[in-house]
Q: What sequence folds into this?
């Protein structure tokens, strides 16, 4: 009888511990789902905007190359100049990528995820 009375609180503690553990597991599953969903939606948004921006820049570059070609009376030279401008822009971005790309993205994502 005394043993049964002592055993009851331990059984309750074990049951409560299982409930708390299951609640924590459910919470972390929900948190991971939320972070994955936000990340996926941001990735899709970036891809769509990047795709549209790519075509905008492409058509502006083609128009600029033809305009330069008309001005210089040589379309090939116009396209060569536009290609050189893109090469210089690429070198600048590669040189400054840590400051221009990596740090802002890292700080933005850190701020967003660690705030939640």
A:
């Amino acid at each position: 009888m005394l043993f049964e009375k002592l055993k009851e609180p331990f059984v309750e503690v074990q049951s409560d511990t299982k409930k708390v553990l299951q609640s924590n597991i459910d919470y972390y599953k929900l948190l991971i789902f939320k972070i994955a969903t936000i990340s996926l939606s941001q990735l899709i948004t970036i891809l769509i905007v990047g795709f549209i921006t790519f075509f905008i820049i492409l058509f502006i570059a083609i128009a600029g190359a033809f305009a330069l070609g008309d001005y210089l009376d040589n379309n090939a030279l116009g396209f060569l100049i536009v290609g050189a401008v893109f090469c210089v822009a690429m070198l600048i971005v590669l040189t400054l990528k840590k400051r221009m790309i990596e740090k802002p993205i890292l700080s933005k994502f850190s701020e967003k995820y660690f705030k939640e």
Observations:
- The mean pLDDT is 85.
